[in-house]
Amino acid sequence: MTEIIRQVTIRGRVQGVGYRAWLAMTAQASGLDGWVRNRRDGSVEAVLAGSEPIVRDMIAACHRGPSAARVEAVLVEDAGAILLAQRAPGERFSILPIV
User: Fold this and answer.
1) Whether the predicted model's global pTM rises above the 0.85 cut
2) Of 37, 48, 68, 72, whose CB count within 10 A is highest?
3) Which residues are catalytic?
């Protein structure tokens, strides 16, 4: 199965509503590797790595997010191992500090 890495930026009301925790929990339950963090511009950024169908399903779920979120846009870009390596050492999926 093909492994892919995608960088995802989610915009809307996505901070202060548990979006990062929801994304990390959902991604981990799906067996994905990566990380998530808030950005100072009010968006949430994530890197998702795994099999193409699972990453695609996770990106689809990002359009909904947790119940309190109001997602306006989900931007998806190809990413590589350098971005994935920003996660905490020894963790499959990390919640990173805001940037």
Assistant:
1) yes
2) 48
3) 20, 38
